[in-house]
Amino acid sequence: MKEFAQTNRIVYDALAREYAFRRDNLGQYSESTEYLGYSLLKNVSDRSHLQVMEIGPGAGQILRYFEDNGCRTIGVELSQEMCCLCRTQSPNSIIINGDICEVNFGIEQFDLIYMGAIIHLFPLQDAKILMKKVWTWLKYNGYIFVNTTCHAKSYEGYSRKQDYPSEINRFRRYWREDDFEQFISESGFSVKEKLYTDEKDRMKKWVALIGKKEIIHNNETI
């Protein structure tokens, strides 16, 4: 496991209880679980036997949403403490405690892949590798949800996680919105929808991209 992942695992083990509290006590400007989950699920008309993976499910509320809507759900979570929360919150999901960069699934295994507040925890080069794996794991005509906060410039490094009281440093990449959208497009996904959330109480502006893996034929998507 790389150093940035080891650091972030320690951070999220320490913050697990705070995530559980925030899960059960949403802020005034936070998007609901139903809104976030439905933004991805609405793209699928036939919802029978859907295979859904969440990368970094945290406290488990989104995973539970997909579970409650009849999906077969798998979560891959770096933090052992967060895994405990997920198993309690989403008991019928398969929870894998491990580094997503070291996990392998079969090709075209998932209909939907949800990546909430996770891509910015990877250095750019590792994020590129991860998105290649995600593209391989996703079925054609499958969808991904990826979001991050918006910043004036793109940069990365270690810094304190400021919206929680614990004085803990973690690795964080900060994305400018246009760089983020270009990154998702260059990873092989057609951006179908952009969603914005302004969490004024946490001073965070989020952009979420709904991307689709499409078949390319003669330089045109089908």
Provide an overview of this structure:
The protein has one domain (3-221): Rossmann fold, CATH 3.40.50.150. The protein is 33% helix and 31% strand. The chain has 6 helices and 11 strands. The chain has helices at 3-24, 33-41, 61-68, 80-89, 124-137, 177-186, and strands at residues 51-55, 72-77, 94-97, 110-115, 138-149, 155-160, 169-174, 190-199, 204-212, 216-217, 220-221. A hairpin with a 4-residue loop joins strand 8 (190-199) and strand 9. Helix 1 (3-24) runs parallel beside helix 4 (80-89) and helix 2 (33-41) packs across helix 3. It is globular and about 45 Å long. The mean pLDDT is 94.
List the helices and strands and how they pair.
Layout: H1 3-24, H2 33-41, E1 51-55, H3 61-68, E2 72-77, H4 80-89, E3 94-97, E4 110-115, H5 124-137, E5 138-149, E6 155-160, E7 169-174, H6 177-186, E8 190-199, E9 204-212, E10 216-217, E11 220-221
Summarize the structure.
The protein is α/β, with parallel strands linked by helices and 222 residues long. The chain has helices spanning 3-24, 33-41, 61-68, 80-89, 124-137, 177-186; strands at residues 51-55, 72-77, 94-97, 110-115, 138-149, 155-160, 169-174, 190-199, 204-212, 216-217, 220-221.
From the N-terminal CA to the C-terminal CA, the straight-line distance is 38 Å
User: Could you give the count of β-strands?
Assistant: 11
Q: What does the largest sheet look like?
A: 7 strands, mixed
In order across it, which strands form the biggest sheet? 3-2-1-4-5-9-8
Radius of gyration (CA) equals 16 Å
**What number of structural domains do the residues give?**
1
